[in-house]
Design goal:
Elements: E1 22-24, H1 29-33, E2 40-45, E3 53-58, E4 65-70, E5 75-79, E6 84-87, E7 102-107, E8 115-119, E9 131-135, E10 143-146, E11 164-166, E12 174-177, E13 183-186, E14 194-195, E15 210-216, E16 219-224, E17 234-237, E18 244-245, E19 257-264, E20 269-275, E21 286-292, E22 297-300, E23 308-309, E24 315-316, E25 319-325, E26 333-338, E27 347-350, E28 358-359, E29 365-366, E30 390-392, E31 400-403, E32 408-411, E33 416-419, E34 429-433, E35 442-446, E36 450-454, E37 474-480, E38 483-491, E39 498-501, E40 509-510, E41 522-527, E42 534-539, E43 545-551, E44 559-561, E45 571-572, E46 580-584, E47 589-593, E48 601-602, E49 614-618, E50 626-630, E51 634-638, E52 646-648, E53 653-660, E54 670-676, E55 681-686, E56 694-695, E57 710-712, E58 720-723, E59 729-734
Parallel strand pairs: 1-52, 29-33
Antiparallel strand pairs: 2-59, 3-4, 4-5, 5-6, 7-8, 8-9, 9-10, 11-12, 12-13, 13-14, 15-16, 16-17, 17-18, 19-20, 20-21, 21-22, 23-24, 25-26, 26-27, 27-28, 30-31, 31-32, 32-33, 34-35, 35-36, 37-38, 38-39, 39-40, 41-42, 42-43, 43-44, 45-46, 46-47, 47-48, 49-50, 50-51, 51-52, 53-54, 54-55, 55-56, ...
């Protein structure tokens, strides 16, 4: 996550109005679903990482096996033999979107194929309860237990220690730390759960609750994140029943929240990292402490105390995050700083139990040639930020990995670092364009990593993220239908919020000027068919809507368009450069402009309104052919520029809609949709103007929430690009 933009981790002369709706007969999706559907192969369009890796766990008794968790993109399994991550939770569908966030994971050291995941992205009232997934085959298949409590994998504290643990005394017993419901216990390998008796901390409705669980010999330690810095926040049980505060533990702001812990079985030392906030944001103080579990002696082994002054005079504030011990070398431990913006985060490594430390950042050499976006528009990549996931390979002392807000770095010699990220894609995707001509078949706009030009789908874009300027999250992306070399983009940036390209998105230049509101509320943008007019809508991340602005000189000057519905997404007619459309979701009214966006007037009214999701799409190559996708009301079509809309009866819910190349012998573009039938939400294709549909994804490829954007390739029939909220860009092709 970039520090300058709200992202997907913050908590998306007309005919008279009132034209009647008519139904268009058509076969329902459910009926079409019974027909033979094409077999599709689904893959990620490669970018590489792009999201917050919140936990990494090497298996203690299987060489080359590791697992990773993410805040919104599911869990993964690493196979060192092939150097690749395998996604483990893509089978979770639309109704289970809240389970794509992984709060915690655990492995069984004795039964080496057992894996447990605690899932739940948000703990707010509007989100569903969490769930436990249990696997006997390393995540190939799962058994699910729904919880009665909520988890929060994309909330503050998501980078703290594993909150799920197999008891070291009994492999059938599991512990689960929750944010608001205390400590839970299962005695049947996660099939059922109940509150743990005797746990002394009192749950809070707004706090962090249990932040970590770690085994130290036969004892289990639990961190507590709701303390005040003066009371106990680390508890221990040696019998699985009685919990007590660990004597002598540190207090104060620098030790307010126990973030992570790791146990060195050779020296019987427990290392604990602390901060004054759960993170990943908001930490300004922290420390590292070592507990000699045999004697109960605590020692402050903090590598560098926060609060110093950097050479440029900035205050060096930060907390401590990750901690990992070397299973092969007694007394060797690695810790990470977190939220250290002035002096930049680092890893510190000690070989003498924390008496002395070496910063691995000082000698680090990075190779990001496989994922060039990690340069963030600069000459060299940074060491990273939001470093809370950290692990040392128990079979290779020099193999260290750490997660950041955008990737997972690894080293095999403590000096040379490169992304260890193949197969792991966590992008939250907002916009997709598939150009009709040119080198690239795909241009994407995403949360956190801006806009990318994909020369190949099997490799991370060689140019990295679009620069001049660099965006964090993209808010708009549009291509002139009749002049595809012209592309525009908008988003959250430090040095401008809009840019244009005259070479199809390969290179960019910032708009010469922008409206004042653009800096705080950049929204979607459209360009007309010949690229002569820009129409920019403005929406703040908190939902506040502002008047749109128009430019007829490539962004050099802008004028307000008061008749445009505030906050609406402008849609350009793909054939007629004088036409724009917009849908007012507040009133259910279609607006149109016939003077290149100078003025807008109402056309059809009495359309669905107030729904949480709408998408207005213009069919390519046709003037006035509009499709309105409505979350809970289905699909509507107008063939007269929005004067009248007819309801398509072949589906009852439509989340997003796009077009691609027509099938052989067909005269109308293929339509792709994420939609719902009586019992399923899936990805569909229609080759006959939405009369019939075939499902093109399957139960193992669902990716949670997929309602943002879908688009077909205008040059290859059957190829479709799908935006996900945490599993990157999926593209499917018939096989």
């Amino acid at each position: 996550m970039r520090m300058f933009q709200p992202s997907r981790r913050t908590v998306l002369a007309g005919v008279a109005a009132g034209a009647a709706l008519t139904a268009v007969p058509g076969m329902g999706i459910s009926a079409a679903h019974a027909a033979t559907a094409p077999t599709y192969r689904w893959r990620n369009a490669v970018i590489g990482g792009t999201g917050f890796i919140t936990g990494v766990l090497f298996h203690p008794s299987v060489r080359g096996l590791a697992y990773a968790r993410t805040d919104i993109g599911g869990a993964y399994r690493w196979d060192d033999r092939v150097g690749r991550w395998t996604p483990l939770t893509d089978h979770l569908g639309w109704d289970d979107w809240n389970l794509l966030g992984v709060e915690a994971m655990a492995v069984d050291p004795v039964h080496r194929d057992r894996l447990y995941l605690a899932l739940g992205t948000y703990s707010q009232p509007w989100a569903g309860n969490g769930a436990i997934l249990r696997s006997e085959d390393r995540g190939a298949t799962w058994t699910r237990t729904d919880l009665t409590v909520k988890l929060g994998a994309n909330e503050d504290g998501r980078g703290t220690g594993e909150r799920l643990l197999v008891d070291p005394r009994d492999c059938d017993t599991l512990w689960l730390g929750t944010r608001h419901d205390g400590l839970l216990k299962s005695t049947d390998r996660g099939a059922t759960w109940a509150p743990a008796t005797g746990f002394p901390a009192t749950p809070s409705a707004t706090g962090q609750g249990v932040t970590l669980l770690v085994a130290a010999g036969r004892a289990v330690y639990a961190g507590w994140g709701d303390g005040d810095g003066a009371s106990a926040n680390l508890f221990r049980t040696t019998d699985g029943t009685t919990w007590t505060a660990v004597p002598g533990q540190p207090t104060g702001a620098h030790a307010k929240v126990p973030v992570r812990a790791a146990y060195d079985r050779h020296t019987r030392a427990l290392y604990v990292t602390y901060a004054n906030a759960p993170g990943p944001n908001g930490q300004s103080d922290g420390s590292v402490h070592r507990l000699a579990t045999a004697t109960g002696t605590w020692t402050d082994v903090t590598p560098v105390k926060p609060g110093g002054t950097t050479p440029d005079g900035s205050t060096d504030t930060f907390g401590y995050g990750g901690v990992a011990v070397d299973a092969r070398r007694p007394g060797t431990v690695v810790v990470s700083t977190n939220n250290r913006w002035a002096a930049v985060d680092t890893l510190y490594r000690s070989t003498d139990g924390g008496r002395s430390w070496t910063s691995l950042k000082d000698t680090a050499v990075f190779d990001v040639s496989e994922t060039p976006f990690l340069k963030w528009g600069e000459e060299k990549p940074k060491f990273g930020w939001w470093i809370q996931a950290l692990a040392v390979d128990p079979y290779d002392s020099k193999h260290i990995v750490y997660g950041t807000g955008a990737t997972l770095y690894g080293t095999r010699d403590l000096r040379h670092w490169a992304p260890q990220i193949r197969g792991l894609e966590e992008t939250s995707v907002r916009q997709l364009i598939s150009p009709p001509v040119g080198e690239a078949h795909l241009i994407s706009g995403s949360g956190d990593i801006g806009v990318m030009y994909h020369e190949r789908l099997t490799a991370s874009p060689s140019r990295g993220m679009a620069t001049n300027p660099v965006f964090g999250s993209a808010t708009g992306l549009a291509q002139a239908a009749g002049r595809p070399a012209y592309v525009v983009r908008t988003g959250w940036g430090d040095h401008g919020n809009g840019a244009y390209s005259n070479d199809g998105g390969r290179t960019w230049a910032p708009f010469a000027a922008q409206p004042d509101i653009a800096k705080s509320a950049p929204g979607p943008i459209a360009t007309n068919a010949d690229g002569s007019v820009l129409l920019w809508s403005f929406v703040h991340w908190d939902g506040t809507k502002y008047a749109a602005h128009r430019s007829a000189d490539n962004g050099a000057t802008w004028s307000e368009v008061s008749s445009f519905p505030k906050g609406a997404t402008p849609v350009a007619d793909p054939a007629d450069p004088t036409l724009f459309h917009a849908y007012d979701t507040d009133t259910g009214t279609l607006y149109a402009s016939t003077d290149s966006g100078l003025t807008f007037t109402k056309r059809a009214g009495d359309l669905p309104s107030g729904d949480s999701q709408f998408k207005l799409v213009a069919a390519p190559g046709r003037s006035g052919d509009l499709w309105l996708s409505v979350k809970w009301n289905g699909l509507y079509r107008s063939t007269d520029g929005g004067a009248n809309f007819s309801k398509i009866t072949s589906c009852w819910a439509s989340y997003t809609l796009g077009f691609g190349k027509a099938a052989d012998g067909a005269t109308y573009p293929a339509i792709y949709q994420v939609g719902s039938t009586e019992n399923i939400t899936a990805v569909y294709r229609s080759d006959d103007e939405a009369k019939t549909w075939v499902r093109i994804n399957d139960d193992q490829h669902q990716w949670g929430w997929t309602g943002e954007t879908i688009i077909g390739d205008p040059r290859i029939h059957g190829r479709v690009y799908l935006a996900t909220n945490g599993r990157g860009i999926q593209y499917g092709e018939p096989v």
